[in-house]
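Z., the sequence and structure:
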Amino acid sequence: MKKTTLVIMAAGIGSRFGGGVKQLTSFGPNGEIIMDYSVYDAIEAGFNKVVFVIRRDLEKDFKEIIGKRIEKIIEVEYAFQELTNLPEGFSLPEGRTKPWGTGQAILSCKGLIQEPFAVINADDYYGKDAFVLVHDYLIRQDERQKKGFDFCMAGFILKNTLSENGGVTRGICCMDEANNLTGVIETRNIIKTENGAAVLLEDGSRRALDCSQLVSMNLWGFTPDFIDELEEGFIRFLEGLPEGELKAEYLLPTIVDQLLQEKRAEIAVLISHDRWFGITYKEDVPSVKADFNKLLEDGVYPQKLW
């Protein structure tokens, strides 16, 4: 069986969740967290290794809550996303407290991944379909023999990704007729409305969106050479930071979009009809618990995963 890895980005601070560590919130009957269900789905799809990207200060709690039990089921590695983990010649800007972003999160896995890999957020539930689509795409890479980077992305229908409790950020996908990605438009403050979805603008007005369009939920499929690209790109990103800039992030959608504009990558959009849910806000917790209870009642998951 070809080796494939699932990378789970779990180093986020979760500020909108009230400062708590939202990735470690329990939702299942035996203390399962969202990551448990993602790992379970990934194993079913055929992934055979997991890399958790975490903060160093979370290591002990993380291993107690999920790591130790997952290690009994599948090969596990840990990568640490740190503010001070910078290329030679760069130092942490005084006053910088914000993490460097999802691009640096994946870059922190350098040396741990030599095989095709998928990337997900720790606090998002993606459903089973997307893992199967991405895994099957990754293991067929040799058949395609494309020039440049050969990546994929799970595309979710916008209406299936909205929160009842506030605005969310989504990468709206632009595609060609062959469902290859041509661009990602990072769109903030998308809200659910009585007619579907809209962007809530700063002046309080709304710009309606087509809620049937596809969006990125940060479920990507990459090849291991992408990590070298991230390393070179992070240097360029740091070199281009204006003096005194303390919040700019090195983000996967921006990096991917740049590769597309340079025509250095081809990215297949794999359409998932599953409904996303997650805990963007503390108020999301009761509905997410109800969603998992329904999945258990319907037999989608066993009462005890591991």
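Helices lie at 34-45, 59-70, 102-107, 128-139, 141-144, 226-239, 252-261, 285-297. The chain has eight helices and 13 strands.

Let me know what you think.
H.
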